[in-house]
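User: Before I run my own analysis I want an independent prediction to cross-check against. Here's the chain; please return only the structure tokens and, at the end, one sentence I can use as a sanity check.
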Amino acid sequence: MADIPVLAMVKREMQRRRITVSELSRVLKINTSSVSGMLKSPSFQVQRLVELSEIMNYNFFREIAAHLPYTDPVYVSESKQSEVDELKSRLKELEMENNILRKTLKDLVSR
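Assistant: Structure tokens:
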């Protein structure tokens, strides 16, 4: 799989928004040399990328996802919803069957 240019994305957004290294270091509350080193590193920590997304009001994760060859994930709540609906339907059927059996039993006892 090809490398995703995360560093290039961050630098592009910094340029587009005219954010300097010193401004970024002030907002991140780390020294300028650390920010400079971070901008030379080929990878980012996820939490740092979250912080940069918030600072620049830009969703780097969405852009990264666009580079991935995978389909959208099926969320647990979506995949389980059909199972829950089937179980609710089956429960209704069993309740109806139960009511019919009770009525039949009551009719037999009253004879």
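Sanity check: The chain has a mean pLDDT of 89.
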